[in-house]
Structures are given as structure tokens and as C-alpha cells.
Amino acid sequence: MSALPPQMSFAERMQRVEQKQNIILRFLRDEIYTTQKIAQMLLGLSEIQTKRTLVAMEKAELITHKQVQTQSGWSPALWGITPHGQGMACADNELPNDRYFQPARVGLSILQHTIGVQRLRVQAEKADWTGWVNGDKSADFDAESRPDAIVTDPRGAVWCIEYERTMKVRSKYEGILFTRLKAIKAGRFSRVIWVSDTPQATRLVRQAVLSLREFEIKRAGVKQKIEIDPARHHPLLSFTDMSNFPPR
Question: Which CATH class is domain 1-106?
Fold first, then answer.
């Protein structure tokens, strides 16, 4: 008969509670809000254990929650960081982030996309990818060329992440492909990966992007002809579905 695992002492339990809360706070320091499902992925706990952790953090005024509803009918409960939580999320020599959860300022039209990108972040970091930076926080890109995220794989290669929740028109893919290849040439990252929710969507996105050969881009009122060389450019582009991200 196998021995039962030793019970944790009170001090050990408190340390574990603090560790779990710190994981959530460090994530929300940047992301500001998330769903219970993402928090569950982040902590690697059961649904009940995750809810218990979130409720305890809310009682401590580190986070708060609010149910919202999108136009599509999706109505998730969002758990977001408070100003107090931002202060407690700081590591040594860090200043608190001024941003905190304000439900009225949540972008409901892009909420599903935002939560999808968060899921990609959790999956990447659990696979030892590092340095995740959301595109809207990167000074290297303007609004027109902003990727969803930049992250470094375990081998040191820097990737541009594009979460493709819905298909785009051809002209949009032309503009994105142009700016991504230009950024690769400038050394901002070395690979681009489009991530879709399903294998079918992945096939459609791959087809849309890899079918581009010649097109025109208008910049500052001037048209520029772009030619794609499959042998040179396609090896820089990857496509996968959510369940197979990040690539091994």
C-alpha cells in the first residue's frame, strides 16, 4: 500500500497561495483582464480551484470582476486587476502600471480576439517561449503594421504572431504580408506565424497568403509593386491551428 503524500504545513499552504496569486497578478499586469478559463490554463488548476483563487484575490481587492456581453452574444465574466493589484504585481525595481481594469473601456468588438491572443501567450510561455510583447505595446510598430505579438522561441528565433480568428479580404493580406516581410528584412523578427482556431481555417489562411505573388501597395500616395518569391519568402511564413501552437 502506497504512502499518502505528506500534508503541507500552514506556512507552505500560504506560500502556495501567494505563488498562485503572483502568477495571476504578473499576467494581469500587462493583460489587465482575462477570463476564468485563461486563468485556469495559467495556473494549471481545476475549475473549482481556479475560481477559489480568483474569489480570494477579489476579497483582497487585488482583482475585480464584471460580466460583459458582446454583439455576438458571448457574455464572459472578466477578471481584471485593480490599482492595488498593480502595486502588488510589481517585482523589485518596477513601478506600478497605471492601467487597471475598467469594464466600460473593454473593447467588446475585439474581445474574442483579445482572449484568443491571451491563450496563445499562455501556451507559448508554458512551452518555454519567452519575452512575449503584445503588438500594441511595442514601440517598433505603428498602428498600420502592428502584429498581435512578438515572442522568442527556445532556440532564440523571434516570431511575429498573427491570430487569425476571422478571414480577411485579399487586400488586407497583401498589406500584412508586405509589412511583415519588410520587418523581417529590418531585423525586427525572423519568422511570421498565422494561428487560426481550427485546421480548416488554417488551410484557408495558408491558401490566401501563399497565393499572393504580385500586387501593388500604396504608401504615402505612391504605388509600389511587390513581387513574392516563394523559394525565398515562403520558408519565413508558418501556419497552424490553436491546438498545435506553438510549433515544436
Answer: mainly alpha
